[in-house]
Each structure stands twice: as structure tokens, then as C-alpha cells.
Specification:
Blueprint lengths: L9 H6 L2 H14 L6 H14 L3 E5 L2 H11 L7 E4 L6 H8 L3 E4 L11 H10 L4 E5 L8 H10 L4 E4 L7 E2 L2 E2 L6 E5 L13 E5 L2 H10 L4 E3 L2 E2 L11 H10 L3 H18 L20 E4 L3 H10 L28 H9 E4 L7 H12 L2
Parallel strand pairs: 2-3, 2-4, 4-5, 5-8
Antiparallel strand pairs: 1-9, 6-7, 8-9, 10-11, 12-13
Length: 366
């Protein structure tokens, strides 16, 4: 097995398409147009078509996408947003930045995704103004059931698709189930740029119009700010051109990721390790995450043989030092256990079966 540099080797990932990437970058350089130009327009059309939505509004990063999606829905001070607390704090940061208050639901122990039963209980006992549903680790949450619950209460739903590019139920892809959806194109994502990037997708023209204004100072026309909460959040032409090269390859990359994940789940046999179930197209294996009550010991065992690992994510949002004073008394037992036990193994499309088998053997020998 060649030495793995990280759980996601971006050098190996981009090596096979360096020629196409260089040509795309050169095309932008020759154009002399670097912000909100033809590459952005083309990528937005292509990505909206891929997701099955009417509109795509590209942005500077995925966290901006979450915040501006909230603002497009007029979620701000005095509003509450239901979300999970085991997904790296990205939705919580966006909710707080919009001036709203996060309310946390627990997650399912089998998938670590938003628990629709807990959502139903919360919606019956308190007022919620919006729901952010995170498709964590590349697996679609119970988005249809949660959306039905939300509709019954007149609540808009935001999909957080930062880890689920291309995941699908039947012919319907991530990003097309809710009122509005958010993507990140951070380099490690299944569809990743060569720098930061993000997007909002929606089929609602009112939300698309709001998002387009919000990404550029709230302008209704140049230098005329009509919508409060705007900012400078634009995907540049270079990254749009790069993403246009990668988008046609996304499905085949996702297929390989699923194969790797299935190989792991079929091969890891250790009494102290819980592996995720083998899934279909609703899973794009953004991260392959196992669970063990002795995480640090296993992490050290892997490191001793040169196998990298990581933790996604080690601390619930409500326990983060920056904001825990806002969430005193919050207890989510499944979330708390998950944050103490999750461990991420290497998973990227260019991994060989031999590399996966070596990691399986290392885990089983622990």
C-alpha cells in the first residue's frame, strides 16, 4: 500500500484531470473576466440542471449559503431554527449569524442523521420558524418525512447538502427536496473546487431573487441596496470553470466512493467497532465514519501503521466554548455518544481495493 497522506488525497484526486483544469484556468485568464462572468453563469445553469432545480446562485462558501438561505426566508432576530448538533457547528454558526436561535434535535443512532420522531415531538411543543436538515457524511436524511412534518406546520425547510452532492432517492437528487438548499464546494467535498466556494439551489423564484441580491450587498441595481442582510459573497470565475470540469465526473466518483464504503462495511469485523450500513444511491460516501467507544486507542493503532484518520465531529454544538452559555441544560444522548465515538477512515475515489483491504486488516487486527 502506498503511503496515504490524509483521509482524502486531493493531489491524487486532481492528477488525472490536470490538463482539463489547466485549460479551464487558462480560458478564464484569456477572458479577462474574473467575477460574475460567463463561467459562473454556465456553472449555475449546469449545477441547477444536475440537482433538478430551477435556480442556482453561486456564493463564496457553504457557510454563507446557509446564512443567506436563512435570510432569503426572512429568518432573523426572534426566530428559531431546528437543526442537529453533531455536524461541525456549520448550521449553528449560520443561524447565530442571521440573528436567530438554534434549537437542537437528537439524531438517529443508526445513521446519526436528524431523527424525524424527535422533530415531530419538538414541533408539537414549541414554535419553530425553519428547519435545516443536514445530509451528514453523504447520506440523505429522512428529508421527505421531515418535509411533510414541516409543511403540516407551515415551516420552510433548508437542505444542507454540503456533504451530499449527487445523493439521490429515485430520480430526485439532494438539493431538490426542500424550499431551498445549500452546497459547499470546499476542496474536500465530493464536488470540490480548488479553493472555497458554495451555492444555493431552489425552484422558488422569490428565494432565488432574494439570494442573488443578498450575495451582492442586497443590491436591487448597482449601488442601490434594497435588501437588508446583504454581503459580498461571490464564486469567482476561476472556481466556476474548475467546477465545470469536475461536475460531469461527479457521478462516477460517487460510484467509486460507494464501492469503497461497501468494501469497508463488508470487511470490518471487530467487536468494538460499529460500521455504517451499506446504502444505495442515497449515499455518496463523503466520509466513511465508524464508531468505537475506544476511539483514541484505535486512532493510535492506525497511526502506528501509517493510516490517517480524523474525527467528524468531536464536540456537540451546544458544548462549544464559543456558545455553550446559550444552551445550558441541553441534553441529546445519542448526539453526545456519537461525538465521543465517531472515527473517519480514508475514503476518496482514487483509493485502490488493496489500500482499502489493508485498512480493513489493520482495524480487524486491533
Amino acid at each position: 500500500m502506498q503511503t496515504l497522506k490524509s483521509i482524502n488525497d486531493l493531489g491524487r484526486h486532481t492528477q488525472a484531470i490536470q490538463g482539463e483544469l489547466s485549460a479551464a484556468i487558462e480560458r478564464v485568464l484569456r477572458s479577462g473576466w474574473f467575477v460574475l462572468g460567463p463561467e459562473v453563469t454556465a456553472f449555475e445553469q449546469e449545477f441547477a440542471g444536475y440537482c433538478g432545480t430551477e435556480h442556482c446562485i453561486s456564493l463564496a462558501n457553504g457557510t454563507d449559503a446557509l446564512e443567506l438561505a436563512l435570510r432569503a426566508l426572512d429568518i432573523g432576530a426572534g426566530k428559531t431554527v431546528l437543526t442537529v448538533a453533531n455536524a461541525g457547528m456549520y448550521s449553528t454558526i449560520a443561524i447565530l449569524a442571521a440573528g436567530a436561535r438554534p434549537v437542537f434535535t437528537d439524531v438517529r443512532p443508526d445513521t446519526l442523521l436528524m431523527d424525524s420522531a424527535d422533530v415531530a415531538r419538538i414541533l408539537e411543543r414549541q414554535k419553530i420558524d425553519a428547519i435545516i436538515v443536514t445530509h451528514l457524511y453523504g447520506l440523505l436524511a429522512d428529508i421527505r418525512q421531515i418535509s411533510e412534518l414541516a409543511r403540516a406546520h407551515g415551516i420552510p425547510v433548508i437542505e444542507d447538502c454540503a456533504q451530499a452532492h449527487g445523493a439521490a432517492l429515485g430520480d430526485q437528487r439532494a438539493g431538490s427536496f426542500a424550499d431551498i438548499a445549500c452546497f459547499s464546494f470546499y476542496p474536500t467535498k465530493n464536488l470540490g473546487a480548488l479553493g472555497d466556494g458554495g451555492a444555493i439551489v431552489t425552484s422558488r423564484p422569490d428565494l432565488a431573487s432574494n439570494a442573488r441580491q443578498l450575495r451582492q450587498y442586497g443590491w436591487s441595481s448597482k449601488y442601490h441596496a434594497a435588501l437588508a442582510g446583504g454581503r459580498n459573497s461571490r464564486l469567482d470565475e476561476m472556481q466556476a470553470a474548475v467546477l465545470r470540469v469536475m461536475l460531469p465526473l461527479l457521478d462516477q466518483w460517487n460510484t467509486r466512493r460507494r464501492e469503497i464504503a461497501a468494501r469497508y462495511s463488508g470487511g470490518i469485523r471487530h467487536p468494538k467497532v460499529t460500521v455504517p450500513a451499506i446504502h444505495g444511491n442515497d449515499y455518496v460516501a463523503h466520509l466513511y465514519v465508524i464508531m468505537t467507544p475506544e476511539r483514541e486507542r484505535l486512532k493510535q493503532h492506525l497511526a502506528a501503521t501509517g493510516i490517517p484518520s480524523d474525527v467528524h465531529y468531536p464536540l456537540p454544538d451546544y458544548a462549544q466554548a464559543a456558545c455553550r452559555h446559550l444552551f445550558e441544560g441541553v441534553e441529546l444522548p445519542v448526539t453526545a455518544q456519537a461525538c465521543g465515538e465517531v472515527l473517519t477512515l480514508p475514503c476518496f475515489p482514487e483509493m485502490s481495493d488493496d489500500e482499502v483491504d489493508s485498512i480493513i486488516a489493520c482495524v480487524n487486527s486491533w
